[in-house]
Specification:
The complex is a heterodimer of chains A (404) and B (111). Chain A has eight helices and 19 strands. With 404 residues, chain A is an alpha+beta fold. Chain A folds into two domains: 2-31 and 180-400, Naphthalene 1,2-dioxygenase Alpha Subunit, Chain A, domain 1; 50-173, Rieske [2Fe-2S] iron-sulphur domain (Rieske Iron-sulfur Protein, 3-layer Sandwich). Chain B is mainly α. Chain B has one domain. The chains are: A alpha+beta (404), B mainly alpha (111). Bound molecules: FE2/S2 (inorganic) cluster and fe (ii) ion (FE2). FE2/S2 (inorganic) cluster binds at residues 93, 95-96, 98, 113, 115-118 of chain A.
Chain lengths: 404, 111
């Protein structure tokens, strides 16, 4: 009975629920153009809420990290003050604008500028000015570090470079934020992370992880739990497109037989291929049968993909039209013993190997797109299983076209 | 004697495979032959249940030296299993360059 329901589901064409998306070809210009890239910077990255980390990174007063936003050319200091509040500041001294903090992270009561020694406390107030009496009309209270809007949702730290953000973070996250807030992120604080620079446009990165159509071909053996006989090519179990963000629920084959080592790992902690495992809070919103995980894309560049008992995130930071800095973080409940740590290591290695397949493919796609630029056919086709690719490209394009 | 006594059969693998970091384990995986990987995999798989049961009696971040050596071997099994069970090759076929995708710990090291 249940199976029959999934088969009916596969006849749905999710794209048609959103007429504004259209069904036509999509231009490759956004993957190549410097002008488009610059417009993305001004209309998206300088105005959207951007995830920069989690609050567990800076648990104690004075703990800080520095986040560069490369396409905007800015460096931001995220710091927990002695009052426990996490704030963001432009990482720039208020004297002659020297870059204030040169390390990636650490803990600090007082940040001292390396140029002339001006010092700031960890809530951004200017505290010390060497030879202060030689300055004219200096009001130390008004010459603290320049604040940046920072807010926290479910432990995730976001910033917004807009001096007056159009929406609060909660408003920005909208319905998806409400739904995902149920997921027990706070219990999963063991984090295994990878990063690297990709020779591909940031939206090709987002697109590559925004559909399951590719899995049978890019991940013929590593992703074989994401299909079954009724759904070989990644048709959605559920797709929900918000104003900017979206969710795609994907299949896990309940009859998939784990490999020998995976079965050992799977007897201790949840694994990638454990399809059919019941979903918990904040996941599988449609209650689909044989669910494995939800892809959640928080516009513009942040993935929060939730599975049963673990989750992973991606951040894409544009560097140039054809270069992107990419980070993935893979989260579990902290391992209590060797068996659990071993099982995390299995899952970490499998996910990393899967990503190796995606990342290599992504660079080949960038090369292909660049090569196609000189031809008459400067567009791509998207099927219904790629509805989230279409949505992301559309939302980016709508932003880039904004004139306000 | 390097490994705890019940696991002495794994002794020949210690030098090559008992490695403390993901980078070392990944590097030895992609530079080993499938014959070496298969031999290590087979030996480890036959004792993995017993090894994990044995290791679970120690605190994860404070194991005796011989137990830690064994534990590092189990982590190398996690690293190489895809070569045997999925890819049939040491490196990921059509994969990204491992040296360009590196691990980091945003919240400090996990034992
Ligand atoms: S620029 Fe920082 S003290 Fe002068
Ligand atoms: Fe993929």
């Amino acid at each position: 009975m249940q199976e029959a329901e999934n088969i009916e589901l596969y006849d749905r064409r999710w794209t048609l629920d959103y007429p504004e998306l259209g069904t036509g070809p999509v231009s490759i210009e956004p993957y190549l153009s410097q002008e488009y890239f610059d417009r993305e910077r001004d209309t998206i990255f300088r105005r959207s809420w951007l995830n920069v980390g989690r609050e567990e990174q800076i648990p104690a007063a004075g703990d800080y990290f520095v986040q560069e936003i490369p396409n905007c050319g800015v460096s931001i200091l995220i710091v927990r003050g002695n009052d426990g509040v996490i704030r963001g500041f432009h990482n720039v001294c208020a004297h002659r604008m020297n870059k204030l903090v040169w390390t990636n992270d650490g803990s600090c009561q007082t940040f001292s500028c390396k140029f002339h020694g001006w010092s700031y406390d960890n809530s951004g107030q200017l505290r010390g000015v060497p030879d202060e009496e030689t300055f004219f009309d200096l009001n130390k209270k008004e010459r603290g570090l320049s604040p940046v809007a920072v807010d926290i949702w479910q432990g995730f730290i976001f910033l917004n470079l807009d001096p007056n953000p159009e929406e609060t973070l909660l408003e920005y996250l909208g319905e998806m934020g409400d739904r995902l807030a149920e997921f027990p992120f706070k219990d999963m604080t063991a984090c295994y992370a990878y990063r690297g620079e990709l020779k591909a446009n940031w939206k090709l990165g987002v697109s590559a992880f925004n559909e399951v159509y590719h899995v049978a071909f890019v991940h013929p053996s590593s992703g074989n739990s994401f299909r079954d006989k009724d759904n070989m090519f990644g048709r959605p179990l559920w797709a929900k497109l918000d104003k900017r963000h979206h969710t795609l629920s994907i299949l896990g084959n309940p009859d998939f037989k784990m490999t020998p080592v995976e079965a050992v790992a799977g007897s201790h902690t949840p694994q990638v291929s454990q399809g059919g495992v019941g979903s918990g809070r904040g996941s599988n919103p449609s209650g689909a049968k044989d669910w494995s995980l939800d892809i959640n894309v928080i516009f513009p560049n942040f993935f929060v993909d939730v599975a049963s008992g673990w989750y992973f995130t991606y951040n894409f930071w544009p560097l140039a039209p054809d270069r992107t800095f990419y980070e993935m973080k893979n989260y579990y409940a902290p391992p209590r013993n060797a068996s659990e740590r071993f099982s995390h290591e299995y899952s970490r290695a499998l996910l990393r190997d899967i990503l190796h397949e995606d990342l290599h493919m992504m660079e080949q796609t960038q090369a292909g797109v660049a090569s196609a630029a000189g031809t008459a056919r400067r567009n791509i086709l998207l099927g219904d299983s790629e509805v989230c690719v279409r949505h992301h490209m559309k939302v980016v394009n709508d932003h880039v076209g904004r004139t306000d | 004697m390097q490994l705890p006594q019940p696991f002495s059969k794994l002794e020949p693998f210690v030098e090559q495979w008992s490695l403390g970091t993901e980078r070392e384990r990944n590097n030895i995986r992609i530079t080993s032959t499938m014959e070496e990987i298969q031999e290590f995999y087979d030996a480890m798989l036959s004792q993995i249940h017993d090894a994990l049961t044995y290791l679970d009696s120690f605190p994860l971040d404070d194991m005796p030296e011989d137990a830690q050596k064994l534990f590092n071997l189990t982590l190398s099994l996690a690293e190489v299993s895809n070569c045997v069970e999925r890819f049939g090759e040491p490196a990921v076929p059509n994969g990204f360059d491992s040296a360009r995708f590196t691990p980091f710990s945003p919240y400090g090291p996990i034992p």
